[in-house]
Amino acid sequence: MSAETSPDGSPQTGDAGPPATELDPEALKLFALKVWSYKMGEVVSLMIHLGDRLGLYRAMAGSGPLTGADLADRTGLDARLVEEWLLGQAAADLMTRHDDGRFELDAVSAALLADESGSVDFAAGAFQGGTPPEVVDALARSFDTGVGITYEEQGAVATAGLARMNAPRTRQTLVTEVLPAVDGLTERLTAGTRVVEIGCGGGVALATIAAAFPNSTFIGIDPSPTAVELARQQARVDSLTNVSFIEGFATDIDRATDDGPAGLVLAFDCLHDMPRPDRALAAVRDVLADDGILLVKEIRCTGDFDRDRRNPLLALLYGFSVTSCLQSALSEADGLGLGTVGLHGDRLTDMATAAGFGSVTQHDLGEPNNLYYDVRP
Ligand SMILES: C[S@@+](CC[C@H](N)C(=O)[O-])C[C@H]1O[C@@H](n2cnc3c(N)ncnc32)[C@H](O)[C@@H]1O
Asked: 196 in ligand 1 pocket by Cβ < 6 Å?
């Protein structure tokens, strides 16, 4: 903790800058509104979490206009609290309040907030109800020490939230849209090949492909025991017999290829989280068959802040970075510290070339936040 803040984050000494009287009051008001809008985002996020967790959105989806009492009846929840939650949702423009005082979730809102298996944009996994105080303390400490916290240290709720956040799009598009975009990949998986996923997290991607290609075998690796346990549970739920998971770093990938080289390695949304993605790529190259494929999913970014600002959610990505991705990327003393928006196409190409790969082909499949790269020896 730095000298200027107390353990709860409140200021201890205060050179707060020039006195407010010298500042334009209108500019101050406008700026205050901007700052408070972020506080509003924080509490509305918690309301979204409650709406998902308590089944409120699902109870409203397709039901037409409802009163608070109707919704309380349908969900078995307290009518007064439900009414207040509804008013807050209407104030946040997440649903409509009709003139007669009834509330309605329209089809677009329902797709985003209630339809986990049918909408690629379902968001509730990202709304976990806040960051545990001990994790916030660890984040603050990292600014003093320069050493970040791993995904495991970010907590089980974050691990489960991340898996759930990525699941809808993965389940709906990985086999039907992403894999067919890579030349020859679907045919190879159909015939049967050895697949390893590094940084597999909760295992949704691997489980999804394993279910579609029973002739291939799949091994997921992740250093987080919580993520690996979640991935094993997922495989059990999906009754998969061709997939297994081991705890380990990407550089331990040789432990997954005892039986021969890998035909396909997946690195989904994880290279920028690794302290040493350069070493991970070199380890992958060592175990990949000469005609093998490394399929990388990375964040859509350019390496140029002004161009990246075209993304209206760029501040969200930097927030994810400071609280999660960059933390992980700095969790070892010699970490390169790429972070969420740190691995753009040119940098990946340079790193892959240095690791001994011969070609990197980018695939833009129109996903708002991701690009794919087909990396070959
Ligand atoms: C953002 S999550 C992505 C998880 C999953 N691939 C997905 O798409 O949902 C990043 C994952 O990378 C893992 N990770 C971090 N450092 C790693 C390393 N050195 N080797 C392998 N995995 C690592 C984390 O534990 C975490 O599960």
From this structure: no
